[in-house]
Amino acid sequence: MASRFEHLPHRRAIVDRRALAETIAALPGDGLRNRAVALLKEALAAGRAEIARRLAERPTRGLEIAAAQAYLIDRLVVILFDLATTRLHPEGEPITLLAVGGYGRGEMAAHSDIDIGFLTRNAPAPATAQVIETMLYALWDLGLKVGHSSRSLDEMIRQAKADVTVRTALLEARFVTGDATLYDDAARRFKAEIQRGTERQFIADKLAERDARHRRMGDTRYVVEPNVKEGKGSLRDLHALFWIGKYIFDVQRARQLVDVGLFTPQEYRGFHRADDFLWAVRCHLHVITGRAEDRLTFDVQREVAARMRFHDRNDKPAVERFMQFYFLQARTVGTLTGVFLAHLDERFASRGRRFGLPHLRRSPKRLNGFVLDRGRLALPDDGFFRDDPIRLLEIFALADAHRLEIHPLAMRAASRDAKLIDEYRQHPRANALFLEVLTSPGDPELVLRWMNEAGVMGRFIPDFGRVVAMMQFDMYHHFTVDEHTIQAIGLLARIEAGTLVEDHPLASAIFDQIVSRRVLRVAVLLHDIAKGRGGDHSILGAEVALRLCPRFGLTPAETETVSWLVRHHLLMSDTAFKRDLSDFKTILDFAGTIASPERLRLLLVLTIVDIRAVGPGTWNSWKRQLLATLFESAEEVLRLGHKQRGRAERIAARQENLATALGWDEERFAAFVRRLPEPYWIAEPDDVLEHNARLMAAAGDAPLSIDAQVYEERGATLVTIYAADHPGLFYRIAGAIHVAGGNIIDARIHTTRDGMAIDNFLVQDPFGRPFDDSTQLARLRVAIEDALANRGKLNDRLVAKPSARTRADAFTIQPNALINNEASNRFTVIEVNARDRPALLNQLAQALFQSKVTIHSAHVATYGERAVDTFYVTDLTGDRLTGATRIKALEKRLLVAAAGDAVDVAA
After folding, report:
1. What's the whole-model pTM score?
2. Tens of pLDDT along 680-701?
3. Full 3-state SS string of 381-410
């Protein structure tokens, strides 16, 4: 046992077992257990403090710290076992105490579970059961989380045969103390009765378990809040490789995987480096959070980066440098997994099909010197890439063209030789091959991901190499920049293939009209390529496009279009989500920048794939409708000039659809239509138009009507208020929603021609979920009724309500207020950028009310932790805001409200 921890320096400083054991041995019998537990608790705290000190002093030595935690637990468990079997219950039978799981491997973080097994020759006698019970209660009294089992030897074998989870735990079982002969017998029987002859099944089970875990955790190693223990590219993937090697070849240490031919020495160094780093991250997480936390969330990433001594450099914050290094290690884990399985495949080739890999459906005739190895594209010899480095791109083009998988050993050779492509970046054939993959009608996403993971893509396009594994420290982007880009290309290919018609009907319908398809592919590739350079990535990216496109073989006209698309790739989403699309000047300004129907089509599709590739939940029907409305309005302007004939046709069509849905008589419906202004019919979707109409009809002459219902398509609650309009109505509603525990994610406010307000709010709880039970909805209605009827002081209730701590609290965003009289002919447009938080909209609306401003429409957009709230306003006489002094005062008041500083909350 000592050999497991012999590499640990100054072990006695962690815990002096001998001195502690002697102190406990000297305790009198009266109150022995409680006194012993108190001493063990002191030793545990002191040992953890020493290990935390070492972690702070040597913050990257993860494996050493993990071993130190296991060593500490080992020493305490041995002392406790001796106490239980010699003094508390000396009459018990021989028993073996095993460490299993991570504890058995000798690797633990500060708050890891302690998995132990009690093994007896036969069914435990009552005295033995007392020993086990005494130990478990003592460990729980120490504040440890214990996973335990108690089995006879025969029962252990029987359960290991039936359950692969038990088998895996016992595979790493380590003798801690007790009957060593029994342990030897158990180990012998495990090898003879469990391992022998079941190797292939164990491998298949572990790979299936890994795949299921990956799907559960998101099935990508590039999520920006990764799980260090369970995610793809995590410690568990490394553990799975070790388990397989141990099961087949009985290796005791990971370095022995080299001896049995599953890794080269260089590959093992990569394995050890990733293992050490990931363990260091996990140990820091446990120390920082004070619990068994394995998810590297935004609120701890900065602190982990600082503790591991990453620093700001070249306009890149320390946290982004740290996370980039993390993702590079995760990529290494993926590469090692492929190589490891390839070696296994060779060992078991004669016994059946490959592990979890598809069979070849057809044999391509021309492979240009490459060969097939059991259905995978492989190299004829190890120097094949060195003989012609352009083959580093050709292998991926062939894989795409023939739908072949690339052999992991060929991927390893590509990674090793990737630097050879540096001298061929300008070569026409090399660029033609890359463009062939990028514009493939097949599955370019998969092949580009392989190219990226091999390191070839980053070497061939150094600008892309700069964003490989680059995270963006914000809540909006779910993936690294390179993964986001590759996913966007995959989405584009699926839209082009017609497989996403239901999700994207407009983009699918117009795709056949797009002439410049390869322009679109290249624009998607380059749209974020200049991130992390300290400037506007759209402007910088457009310059990169002007440099790269001619190299790829694009014409000057194509190059100009790609550059334009990269420069303006945020224009359409910014306009759709932050501006009032019922204001015709918004449409004119947007169309003026586009200037071409082809560019409009290209920009729409680029915008869609860019948003969808951000991550799950970022695309929804509301965004789809806003983009469709903007596209159709701009297309009409580009086709008809400044005429608004198309707008009138759209309004008429909506009114006709509503009339059909309502089934009202003609006179009643006409009277209803006359009450509502023209912008209302543009702003609301069809289902909300119908909902509002029925609410207004049911309300009759009532001064206030409130409806709240879950709006499934947005994952939010739609709150509709129909009330007599008056100054301050908007901010009172916003404040009431906050008091009820809601967070407004969208607001659309309208006033009928007879002075009634019909306002629609989309509301979630602080964690992005809808208010979906009757209690929440009732509380929401009561809060709004109380606020509008002035029952109780809203101000006091807002101040008294504690702010829910959300993930956005991990970010610092400097508030900004932009007041623009050029964006609309009728209104002053105010855009406020701030960190998203509950009651933000209430405070901004209150600031506007205090400034004697009338809000005509509000548009709420959230990008992760960043809120962008836009208001179309006038003064009390209906004119735009003028006067430098007034605008300056309004800007100051809005900045105070946006910052959440000492501001008079709306009352």
Report:
1. 0.81
2. 888 788 889 999 999 999 998 8
3. CCCHHHHCCCHHHHHHHHHHHHCCEECHHH
